[in-house]
Design a protein that fits this description.
Heterocyst frequency control protein PatD; 4 helices; Four Helix Bundle (Hemerythrin (Met), subunit A); mainly alpha; single chain; PatD-like
């Protein structure tokens, strides 16, 4: 497995673990925020540089497009977590968790699309 594929695969696994965490009983807002921050850091350090390294490949522009969308989704995920932290009603908190889960699913789909094109 190439380093690129390995990094995207690892990122997708972390996304899945985070999505699984959102359904656990020990879920707490500070823990969720920390995990999202770690995910964003991993994305910036391990995923973003990959498009630059593969500048000569024909699918680079598509990969860069996916990375742009992933970056946007990660920023929105951070906002979703902030809204979750501010939720006072259980129904609101549950709706925010569903939004977070949906966003994580979207991110996993982007990873899968990149992995399939390599």
């Amino acid at each position: 497995m190439s380093l690129n594929r390995q990094n995207y695969h690892t990122f997708a696994m972390l996304l899945q673990q985070l999505r699984d965490y959102t359904t656990t009983a020990e879920l707490n807002a500070p823990g969720l925020r920390q995990r999202v921050a770690s995910l964003q850091q991993m994305f910036q350090q391990q995923i973003v540089p990959l498009a630059d390294e593969d500048a000569q490949t024909p699918y680079n522009s598509r990969e860069q497009s996916y990375q742009t969308e992933m970056s946007k989704q990660l920023r929105l995920l951070e906002l979703d977590v902030m809204f979750f932290q501010g939720a006072r009603q259980p129904a609101t908190a549950q709706a925010r968790l569903q939004t977070i889960s949906d966003r994580l699913t979207t991110l996993m789909q982007y990873c899968e699309a990149i992995l399939q094109q390599e």
